Amino acid sequence: MELLWKLERNRTFTGQFKTAQEYLEWSFENTDEWFDKHPHKQLRRYIDF
């Protein structure tokens, strides 16, 4: 819940998404697709809120 509040407060998703929840759903879907395409790779970059 705190993450949603931070995203909405910072307007991280402004322009492409109406809410932080839409942004997170889109992000998780794309991450899942990426892992399906690249099962042996790891994510190396992290976002620091």
Name a few traits of the molecule:
mainly alpha; 49 residues
Give your account of this protein's structure.
By secondary structure, this protein is mainly α. It contains 2 helices and no strands. The two termini are 13 Å apart. The mean pLDDT is 71.
Give a quick rundown of the structure.
With 49 residues, the chain is an all-alpha fold.
Strand content: under 5%
How many structurally independent domains?
1
Give the uncertain stretches in residue-range form: none
Oligomer status? single chain
The DSSP helix count reads 2
Helix content: 55-70%
Largest sheet: number of strands, sense, barrel closure:
none
Q: Give the SSE string.
A: HH
Q: Which structural class fits the helix and strand makeup?
A: mainly alpha
What coarse outline follows from CA principal-axis ratios? elongated
Question: What topology does this entry show?
Answer:
Blueprint: H1 2-10, H2 20-37
